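Batch 3, record 17
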Amino acid sequence: MNLSISKNALYNALNTVSHAVSPNSPQPVLRGIKITADETGLTLIGSDADISIMKKIKADEENKMNIVDTGSLLIESRYLTEIVRKLDSEIIQIEIVDGALTKFSGSSAVFKINGMKPEDYPNIDFRTIGNPISMDKNALVSIIEGTAFAAATKDTRPVLTGVNFKLENNILSCTATDSFRLAKKTMKFDLDDSFNITIPAKTMFEIKNSMLNDTVEKIEIYQNGKKVQFVSDDMIIQSRLLDGEYPETDRLIPKEFPYVLTIDREELIRAIDRTIFIKNENMAINRLQCSADEIVITNRSQEIGESHENLYGEYTGEPIDISFSANYVISAAKYIGGRTIKICFSGQMKPFVILNTEDDSILQLVLPVRTYN
Amino acid sequence: MNLSISKNALYNALNTVSHAVSPNSPQPVLRGIKITADETGLTLIGSDADISIMKKIKADEENKMNIVDTGSLLIESRYLTEIVRKLDSEIIQIEIVDGALTKFSGSSAVFKINGMKPEDYPNIDFRTIGNPISMDKNALVSIIEGTAFAAATKDTRPVLTGVNFKLENNILSCTATDSFRLAKKTMKFDLDDSFNITIPAKTMFEIKNSMLNDTVEKIEIYQNGKKVQFVSDDMIIQSRLLDGEYPETDRLIPKEFPYVLTIDREELIRAIDRTIFIKNENMAINRLQCSADEIVITNRSQEIGESHENLYGEYTGEPIDISFSANYVISAAKYIGGRTIKICFSGQMKPFVILNTEDDSILQLVLPVRTYN
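Prediction for the assembled complex:
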């Protein structure tokens, strides 16, 4: 292997692929990024047990690539990214000098790094599987941002640590829940297909991060019930799926809302955020009391004290008095977007739903908390 | 106590004073900030065992202060700053409603917080002591930035965890050393006085942080061998001093430099920074070889690999081959400032000195490391 390449092109690709690498993996080869050079360009691969990313850099003028000798290398991800980030030239020269010893040259700085044997890297199958659905990168990012935060972080019920993607009747529903709150985003697809898969939330965040820096616009999603692939022009991200049947969450979402509060989204977030330092057993709980006359949000702890704030909003229905986790409602309001939101109640101790008044593709649900104030 | 005040004025003062507060102090009253209102304005006090800060907010138009009733309160620093930071109005109303229960009102948000008894707060003596020396805030900040980083962090020899201030023959010398490196900044004073005190480095950093946000320009420094006070128009920061005699460091600093390397400061930092991932036993050691022909910096580890870089600079003297801690030289070069620096050697295993070619008031010294390459 002997080649030269634009430092920026290589650094961006390393940065993308490194999202799949666990720097402290018990398997040393998985701490590395494998780079293979052939006539068409470079292929970078990074992987841990859950997620694998393959990224291609084309041998073209823009990437200032010049391949003298093909070949491959496998070097710890953190050393690779550190060297390429800091090298003192716009074009980097990479050459295997002896076995796995690889030389990186900038303008005056030279590194010789001990690599691992690329043959020892697991053979990861990136061939695409089945028929894809296609969506904009931005749509995928908004699905991830709008749902993945609501997945469970404890794996007492492993399937809840993922985001469920269900395609049925031309609608893709993406759902995450930790059983105290639920986030759901839907999207129409003119496609005669159906599936029901659950992708680890951790993977979804990595996918988002690795795509944010990328110039890709369209993503194709392939799945076969065992793994899922997010494929763009020059990149494949694939992840294992979570086993187990995802709970039927639709029945949890109330359909009728006799009581509705319409309120400025950012004002609600600010009002709740003001009170989150008032905690009981390390949890901030707000009490919301709505009537035709006033909307009052309070928080109280024996130790710290209490807060009281009148909110401006429009409330219809019988008076309601409900308590909830401040952090859950802040997250729900943050990710639902829009200027004005509707908080829809169906009863004192029933889950309530937060809706964006301008976008009915997204829904947030929060379970109230029982308090004894 | 019943008053109203500009939110910004109060928030800035709380922010300044909170630098002296340990939020988890075993003494609950010391987790608090004490605020006293009299006819002239508000006085805020925060303190831990080492450092105390008193800040005054004048009862004037600019601070939009209106004192209806004088009095005092004592409330946990983190709650106070959180409430004031997030309250929903430009003017805040503060009123003691019952014992230590204090009401904070913004526009529509109201907090009632359980305070502590202000009588329980220690009586801290802020009266100034002795004759002061006076300096610009910026000069004090540059002393702190140029020296305090070099103080010891382990207290095997407690006096080395401080910055030594020595006034003698009209020169103030400020020195910090952890016995592997030393930083020294000097300043002329037309003043017939002398002292030799050592201020905890931790305190110096807090002083810097609390002053950075402040509009103060001049600082007067008082000391009596037991404590030191940094006094400005509306603020007093005082700190205990470290016991023990500060070592006579001047004899450590070589006076003759037969070998001198003149080099661009930022280029040197970048060259070393490129190599700090190459570590032996968690420490990055650079080897610098200078001769009339070339200046070469290298780094090598059995495990990771090696680096090699030719530097552009001017070297005079016999060839030298010296090794040092990458992080120590980066810090020294970072804080000495200037475009070009001189690295002055007096022998292979002798301490070397880094000087700013445009500013002879600051000096950095680093001990070489013995290696067996």
